[in-house]
Design goal:
Layout: H1 2-16, E1 27-32, H2 39-53, E2 58-63, H3 65-73, E3 79-83, H4 87-90, E4 94-96, E5 102-111, E6 128-131, H5 135-140, E7 147-150, H6 153-161, E8 167-173, E9 187-189, E10 195-204, H7 211-224, H8 226-241
Parallel strand pairs: 1-2, 1-3, 6-7, 6-8
Antiparallel strand pairs: 3-10, 4-10, 5-8, 5-9, 5-10
Length: 244
């Protein structure tokens, strides 16, 4: 009887342990279902290769950004593929991997005859549009009085052409080509990005022990140029799949 009691007690303890990453148990990372910029494919390419080097498999699940953040915080997912590091300030159960996967630019587009703001302070007098659910843009534009959210980039640019908004904000990775010319018809980009921000992978806190190992591999990939090559290949494939 003592043996069986000990066995049941041991199984109960194991059942309460957090699920650790193994090759047989894929890590489930959220990726933006509405990404239209190539950011998500580039981030997936780099993060997937880094996990592969650690002997881990990854499954990316396309979800709306707000929903995925709740799911990851509650432990239903293992991590987020691309987030600003400050997200962890409001979600302490999430840990930012310190080496960024991509660096994102916030690029403003205006009508050729419209106003040309040079920084965020000048946006307060304008009607500003941006894609729904992009936490970076939501945080940067939190104090802007006139905001309009759009479902995707195409809808955003239609709002600009219809003069419903004065400026459209898009997120593009550093080094990534500009969006297709057809999407930007009758619009011009501001001469410089309004902000430049690194985007990181986030892990649920149950994977705390994985964080330094993943960061080390990502840094090695940056130093060797492998990460840049993966991003470039992802952007080329994404552009080819979105060409007319």
């Amino acid at each position: 009887m003592d043996f069986w009691r000990r066995r049941e007690a041991g199984l109960a303890i194991l059942a309460g342990w957090p699920l650790l990453a193994t090759a047989a148990t894929p890590l489930r990372f959220a990726t933006d279902v509405n990404d239209q910029s190539g950011l998500a494919p580039a981030g997936r390419a780099v993060l997937g290769r880094a996990c592969e080097r650690l002997g881990l498999t990854v499954r990316f699940e396309a979800l709306p950004l707000r929903r995925s953040l709740r799911m990851t915080e509650q432990g239903h997912l293992d991590g987020e593929a691309l987030r600003i590091a400050t997200v962890t300030h409001d979600h302490p159960s999430l840990l930012a991997v310190p080496v960024p996967l991509v660096t994102v630019r916030v690029v403003g587009y205006v009508r050729a005859t419209g106003p040309v703001p040079q920084d965020w302070s000048l946006l307060e007098t304008l009607r500003v549009g941006y894609p729904r659910g992009v936490v970076l843009l939501e945080k940067l534009g939190a104090r802007l009085p006139h905001k309009v959210e759009a479902t995707n980039h195409a809808d955003l640019m239609r709002l600009l052409r219809a003069q419903t908004i004065d400026i459209a904000l898009l997120t593009l990775a550093a080094g990534q080509p500009e969006p297709d010319a057809a999407l930007l018809a009758d619009a011009v980009a501001l001469p410089a990005p309004l902000s430049v921000t690194p985007l990181h992978a986030l892990l649920h806190q149950r994977h705390r022990e994985l964080l330094p190992r993943l960061a080390g591999v990502l840094q090695d990939m940056e130093n060797s140029g492998e990460a840049a090559r993966l991003r470039q290949a992802a952007w080329s494939a994404w552009a080819a799949s979105h060409s007319p």
